[in-house]
Design a protein that fits this description.
The chain has 2 helices and 5 strands; from the N terminus they run ααβββββ. The chain is mainly beta. 8% of the residues are buried.
């Protein structure tokens, strides 16, 4: 009858003396082996809501400018074509702002070849490379959906100089 041996345990008497080494030699012999990452242990139990809020706080962008409805903005959008990635600018008037925090979005409207085009951008998305305010708009409404019905010079928004 054959006896089974556990491969994880070795008998020190059968071990080759050239391979047996002290811990200092082992660290020098295998520098490419990564040490385990430091694990942070919390003693209290976090609620699901607290975990979500903590994760969302890490995802927020800190370099966004103050954007108001009526502003003309230039949004740099990351576009991936095959294995190449480039940033394409999209310039237009902010006609709406929605939500807050990580889900904050702006709706930008521009006229392209005589046709109105609107895009909704999630500001904290990785697809949005940059946001730059070109000029401030002087408006008295929270949403500028009435610009959809206007054409030509009637779509202009007065400029604001105090912000």
């Amino acid at each position: 009858m054959a006896t089974e041996t556990d491969p994880t345990t070795t008998d020190p008497s059968t071990e080759d003396p050239s391979t047996a080494a002290d811990p200092q030699t082992v660290d020098q012999a295998a520098p490419d082996v990564a040490a385990p990452a430091a694990v942070t242990v919390t003693t209290g139990k976090l609620s699901a809501r607290a975990l979500i809020e903590e994760f969302e706080a890490t995802q927020l962008k800190s370099d966004l400018p103050e954007i108001y409805v009526g502003d003309t903005v230039k949004v740099g959008v990351r576009i991936r074509e095959g294995n190449k990635e480039r940033v394409q600018p999209y310039e237009g008037v902010v006609i709406a702002k929605r939500h807050g925090g990580l889900n904050q979005t702006i709706t930008v409207r521009r006229i392209f070849q005589g046709i109105g085009v609107e895009r909704v951008f999630m500001l904290h998305s990785p697809q949005v490379a940059s946001v730059k305010v070109e000029r401030r708009g002087k408006v008295r409404r929270a949403k500028l959906f009435y610009l959809r019905d206007r054409v030509g010079k009637a779509t202009r928004v007065k400029q604001r100089f105090d912000r």
